[in-house]
Amino acid sequence: MTKDFPEIADDVSNDAAALREAIPDQMAGFAQLGAATYKDGALSPKHKELIALAIGITVRCDGCVSYHVRSAYEKGATREEVAEAIGVAVHMGGGPSMVYGGEALRAYDAFAKKG
């Protein structure tokens, strides 16, 4: 079955919006953590997204892969950078990460095609 990665990323965003209504205090804390995590520092926001993508691959999280590929793409990550992040994930996570790595590369291509 082919996955619609842009749709999965949109679902993650929509689910987060629903959670902000259901558990506003916790989600406000999560948003604050995200803002602190992804701000520019010794690592650029793009590189932090690539790290998050690699982690999402190793834990086999479709929503994480889709969301962080989209975010990395929007922050200017190239297909080659995404591929290298996938390589790190495969090294750390073995065969299952290789499967999700292939999906992450297809996700990048889907976001690039969508523009």
From TrEMBL:
<feature type="domain" description="Carboxymuconolactone decarboxylase-like">
    <location>
        <begin position="24"/>
        <end position="101"/>
    </location>
</feature>
<keyword id="KW-0575">Peroxidase</keyword>
<dbReference type="InterPro" id="IPR003779">
    <property type="entry name" value="CMD-like"/>
</dbReference>
<dbReference type="Pfam" id="PF02627">
    <property type="entry name" value="CMD"/>
</dbReference>
<dbReference type="InterPro" id="IPR029032">
    <property type="entry name" value="AhpD-like"/>
</dbReference>
<protein>
    <submittedName>
        <fullName>AhpD family alkylhydroperoxidase</fullName>
    </submittedName>
</protein>
<dbReference type="GO" id="GO:0051920">
    <property type="term" value="F:peroxiredoxin activity"/>
</dbReference>
<dbReference type="InterPro" id="IPR004675">
    <property type="entry name" value="AhpD_core"/>
</dbReference>
<keyword id="KW-0560">Oxidoreductase</keyword>
